[in-house]
Amino acid sequence: MHGPDAAFWQERFERGDTPWDRGGPSPQLLAWIDSGRLAPCRIIVPGCGSGWEVAELARRGFGVTGIDLAPAACDRTRSLLAAHGLHARIEQADAIDWRPSAPVDAVFEQTCLCAMHPSHWRRYEASLAAWTRPGGSLFAMIAQRPRAGSVEEGLIEGPPYHCDINAMRMLFEDTRWSWPSPPYPRSSHPNGMHEFGLVIERR
Ligand SMILES: C[S@@+](CC[C@H](N)C(=O)[O-])C[C@H]1O[C@@H](n2cnc3c(N)ncnc32)[C@H](O)[C@@H]1O
Q1: What pTM, to 2 d.p., does this model score?
Q2: What is the tens place of the pLDDT at every residue in 26-38?
Q3: Of the N and C termini of the chain, which has fewer Cβ atoms inside 10 Å?
Q4: Domains, the chain
């Protein structure tokens, strides 16, 4: 397997080495909810990490399923939910293989794609497409983290792996997904990169 595996992520959580963690829900997620762009529905959060977004969505009345490869991330998410008396379904699973019992209305993907080596991206996109009902939406925070080594030497460096917008257009094909026009909202990230907030619709 190319790139980080479950043991890699488990160890990061156990060491408390989680620089991607904002310590609260994504500002762009809050903006989508507050503007009404994302309203209570059935939603999946892959790579849910510490569970900030899972808890926020549960608090706002969404039917949430959070998935993470790392048992420690699932434990953190369950603890956060319990601390606030909230309910969500939490699955310790590989988002590339896992399937829901029925397609859902929306997916909130924040830095799970960029946590995977690009050799897994096609299978991950197939999962996201299978999870999302026709007319449903993928709310995606796309990590922008270009490095000199990739441009100068062709190195594939990460995580986070840079999610170049051209690669995203190829990955989330027009035959399966309907794209809005740029510019896309931009969120700065505590680890120095920034993310584009994309909402693409499942055809
Ligand atoms: C960079 S962290 C982001 C966590 C959270 N989304 C956030 O923004 O704070 C990536 C997360 O994805 C999880 N992850 C990585 N590969 C995964 C996979 N194939 N399936 C499910 N989760 C995965 C990791 O365990 C980790 O919790």
Answers
A1: 0.98
A2: 999 999 999 999 9
A3: N
A4: 6-11+26-202 (3.40.50.150)
